[in-house]
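Hi Y.,

Following your request, here is the sequence exactly as I used it, all 498 residues.
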Amino acid sequence: MRPFIRSSSLCRIRWALRNNQERSVSSFNSKSRRLLIGVSQNQALVNTTNTDHSSLCSRLSILRGLSAEAVEAADAATTRLTVSDVNRTGPLVEYERRISDGELMTGDICQISALRELQRLHDELVESVDTCRLDRYNTSDKFSRSRWFWSRLMPQSSYSPVNGLYLYGGVGTGKTMLMDLFFDQLPCTWKKQRIHFHDFMLSVHSRLQKHKGLSDPLEVVAQEIAHDAILLCLDEFMVTDVADALILNRLFGHLFSNGVILVATSNRNPDKLYEGGLQRDLFLPFISSLKERCVVHEIGSSVDYRKLTSAEQGFYFIGKDLSTLLKQKFQELIGDNVIARPQEVEVVMGRKLQVPLGANGCAYFPFEELCDRPLGAADYFGLFKKFHTLALEGIPVFGLHNRTAAYRFVTLVDVMYENRARLSCTAEASPQELLEKIVTISEAKSMAPRTSSRSRKNDVTELCVDNELGFAKDRTISRLTEMNSKEYLEQHAISQNL
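Below is the corresponding structure, written out as tokens. Let me know if you'd prefer a different format.
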């Protein structure tokens, strides 16, 4: 019988083999490299089209009078270079493979530019794996972990020699896909984490509650995070909450000093983060720190890839008084003979969320119950840990009168998208029209006023001028469109084995 090998052990074996190859290549001294280069340039004596590398080594020994050790080094170098070309890894390599296999569209020049940055970071991390303490099974790292408790009493700064990466750009440019591509190409034995920014901050606040009463709980939280993940990948980095804004500078100051490397995606340029927010002057030092510890790269593209999917009818119903229709759809989703009942979901910090109707992983909510009550990302994450499908009744057109509900709806869509949840809903308008009245300050200034005073008055009262919502609007429209596509629903069905 074949012995059973744990997946983590397999990962360690594969990574050890790869490291062994890399160390073998790097062990060649500079003299051997110079000799190889010199010989390859001497076309009169060495023809590079020869296929027998042993013949090459023989010519080397004749030409330079190399020692046996140098000949062996040249032989190994010729072989190793061939192996490294074949086994080359990284996000850019994987991206090219997916295009050649037809899994992705023809390469977008803007995405390729971002992938070059990700590939560069990938290669730097591989070269600095020991220095950055990335491998959780490394012997020296085990020793450093044994001293973790004492480091909490006597903290020491240890900035990473490798800078992170901050990718930003418009909606649908593939930021999340590129991050996942980068993350998945890294060894599974590394101390790495990929998490949505909302979820990350919820975890931080939960940890702060746990360490409440300490002189500096943020320092302890940062050490705990660094202990689990030296490479921290945060998707959809955006700051809208004043509580988050006030702790980010000190939190990431501690994280960076503990050697954490940040890779983040965002819709916003770092200088535009938390723009117009309360007490933003206290947030500005974080922007400086972020730009110091991360390479900032913009992904520019006029294509929204999420909107290139094919539409699927039957999940997004437009109109009023469609409650009966949505409940019929909900019954189809849970099964004809299944009875839905009120349920309760436990969320972060012991809070509980009441679900009006739930069965077979599907939850039913009137819009008011989910977005007009004081709920937030923690409640939504808790909801979708238990339910994979949401039937949402009565999504309204958003404007100045229901700005708070709009914020919650945007967060709800983000959490659903992150969890690949399915949405069946009734709405007063299409995704584009739902958020049409929400604009940024610059958009409001560029709008031409109507001719009549009555029309101008209506414009002012109906328009919601809000920078954060205005920037989030396009992302929400794009995600709602994709969530109603055939491709998204197929992925959902596969992930849930429906």
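The CA atoms of residues 310 and 485 lie 6 Å apart.

Thanks again,
Q.
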